[in-house]
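Long-time lurker, finally posting.

We've been working with Microcystinase C (Oceanibaculum indicum P24) and I want a structural starting point before designing mutants. I don't trust myself to interpret raw outputs, so I'm hoping someone here can both generate the structure tokens and explain anything notable. Sequence follows.
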Amino acid sequence: MRLFSATIATETNTFSPLPTSLDAFRESVWLRPGEHPDDTPRMCTAPLFVARKRAKAEGYTLIEGSCFAASPAGTVNRDAYEFMRDEVLDQLKAALPLDGVLFGLHGAMVAHGYDDVEGDILERARAIVGPDCVIGVELDPHCHLTLKRMKNADIVILYKEFPHTDVQDRAEDLLDLVLRTIRGEVKPVMSVYDCRQISSYPTTLPLMRGFVDRMFALEGKDGILSVSAAHCFPYGDVPELSGRILVVADGDKAKADALATKLGEEFVSMRGKTMPEYHSISSGVRQGIDSNVAPVVMADPADNAGGGAPSDNTSILRELIAQDAQDAAVGPIWDPLAVRLCFDAGLGATFPLRFGGKIGPTSGQPIDAMVEVTALARDCRQSFGPTTVPLGDCAAIRIGGVKVVLISNRTQALGLELFRNVGIEPTEQKILLVKSTNHFMAAFGPIAKKVLYIESDAPLSRTYEKIPFTKVQRPIWPLDKETSPGLIF
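Top reply, 14 upvotes:
Generated this for you. Predicted structure of Microcystinase C:
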């Protein structure tokens, strides 16, 4: 038995002013065949990682392709995408004959000229391997679950958790089903229900937690092989942007259709109920300062690099300084130039620094202050579940009672190492301001005594009606009151 695996992945915010080039992939995940580390998977590489670990025991040969992944940003350069795609497809051709293919993709990647990158990859891969080769795909739930992908794959599985702590577990599930299909033990059929809605669905909150637990309970029973919820990625302006429910059943399309419809209708009934309460900047900061518990974790989802934002907005930080917050730590602020200046100034230096507020109007105004350099660290990383994420060179600065972590590789707040790398112990802070939508909850949730979500003036608005969509298919909630949800595949 012969399997092939590869990854091309990023999450594209089509409204972001930050173009995505090959250099963005080189900065994050750029691994040629055989170069993937043995320690942990990287972004979207879990299918290859688990397939390598299990090859000997399961009795198959794994042919490894390239793995490319970049932090979320704007639309991908067309030549860059085609270069990576063609490299992987050439590797696929060279690996023939194959019994199965495992793709680790994101699902919300957009390149100039390609609204559906993953659909393009799968369509071309299917033409190469033919109809009998089993193609399995792992996607992020913040994906666009397009019909082209469904038509060209045999098995599609999405992570269930948000924060995405189950990436490796779902890759194990995908490999199980691909191997069982090749061996003739199951005959997967897929059904998709389009809920016609745009929203956010943190699985750390009760309503979505219960929905995900019910999905888990349905799998492995009565012919149901897998159940996934595609949350959608609200900042990708593509025609098939929408929340969708996917069910994979063993040979019984009617059963898959029925369950997808049932769960889809339940998902529709949850409209407007799955997001946390958001506070204004001044109110959120005041609540954090006045709180009698610590640490209070304040989230800035609108400046989340994981959604394509720059992560250099200064508005909440400015309010913390204005309200004289004490024992507060903020991170990350992406500003490679400010990091370099801190290294130039040296540890313990006090000097005038302008930082943040660089990329555009939604970054806010730069902060100009006399700062103390409290820590410097090279080549830092933070953990997220089983993976590690590069932060690059980091500097910690202090302005009064507020400490700020400056980073050179743009990413969101994920692990406690974000602060510990530069000598800030998160559990000892009164306030922790993190730039993240919900992934921060995996590491910061367990230490938080209180969590506040703040709606800043950064680019990722939680009010989806404000987003200037031009391509998304209408009607769709909440842009339209009346919609027509239903089975589409």
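Before you design anything, note these points.
Residues 138 and 441 are 23 Å apart (CA to CA).
The mean pLDDT is 97.
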